[in-house]
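pasting for the record
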Amino acid sequence: MTIPDELWISIIEKGFDWIWLMGVWEHSSLTQEELEKHPGLIKEISNSLPKWNPVDVIGSPYSIVKYKLNPQLGLPGDLKSVKQKLNDLGAKLMLDFVPNHFGGASELVLTNPEYFISTDNKPQDQSLFKQVETEKGIQWIAYGKDPYFSPWTDTFQLNYFNENTREYMITVLNKVANECDGVRCDMAMLCLSDIIQQTWGFHFEQKGYFDNLSSEFWPDAIKSTKSNFPEFSFLAEVYWNLGWKLQQMGFDYTYDKDLYDLLENGSTVKIQTHLSADKSYLMKNMRFIENHDERRAHDVFGHEKSIAAAIIMGTVPGLSLYHQGQLEGEKIKIPVQLRQKQSEKSDPLIQEAYDRILEFTKQIKSHDYQWALLSTSNSNILAWKWYNPNSSKLCLVVVNYSSFQSQGNVFLPLHSEFSKIEQFTLYDMLNEKKYSRKGADLEEYGLFVDLQPFQNHLFIVDPN
């Protein structure tokens, strides 16, 4: 795994403190026969890479066979070297942990079929199972699944109502933790007992028992891992409003899909309400407007709105996820099963906007800054501040997240050391403009803004 130091340095200098490498583990291949069962995936591949060949489809990185570095990417020990390099440069390495299933080519299915949801007899719904000749006889093994979609037929479903399965996966987690600084836990909510019950309850009932363990998997797994690696971090990919529940089980961060949905289709009033949650909860959320599962941000939001959405998700408390190609304004979504992508020209306007956003967030995302949501006189306008009480520095974010020109006042309670300052200079890092305002007017009336649809300000406030 040969990666030039210059690449890591260029990323870290933009302000990134985590690097998430997806697809490093050995995973199942996707045969032509299996691919033909998924016409939707073929269409997505064709849209992404029109002149693709079967050799380009290498399988899903979430159909893991072994938690060992894919030999096509490097040698044993290379991941530790990457981790050490990133740590030396001031960043951390995050890798994937897929708790719900293993890839269909995993030897574990053959040696330990009892770790999976399985049955000796032909199941009533054979579309959910595959007949496998294991070392312990012929078994029908369930495909990996969530309760709302068709099964992932390149995977097999682990059985978390088996204590031995839990112990094995905790051992795997500890091995992974030795290679990185944190894990993104794929579809983490699928391991919750009630979700398993919802998805696979019919199977256990047909077998004549339903062994509901007294404890959940995640608290035990996280406790075990952190006892050996105290600084290790857990990020949960989670949906269905279960983020808070997983935070209570020990997750350091959880996906904020609610904000994504609100940014796509919700009102500014609902966004304001969402961001009014307790800061301890907000700090544990991970925001995004694009990732490998979602369409490209430019495709979803368009040019101006995607910049406004990026400002919102990047300047509130918590983690912000930036996907490969997002900073360049790429428009083509890449299926994870592909080994390559077609080249795209960068969008210079998007790229310039992200450069300025990231320069702004480098200042505010330190532990010395305190965040506060602000009130405005126009519900189309969202605003918040980051304030450093030690240096008296103030950063102000103002966003017109609507398709209408909007005017209004941002009510900006000034700190005591600012209250007697006669004049303020506000430098807008996004638009490279300076504004001068009287301190008395800011305190009495707030800051008046007049913004075009999805126009924004990223102010550095300097008391002269």
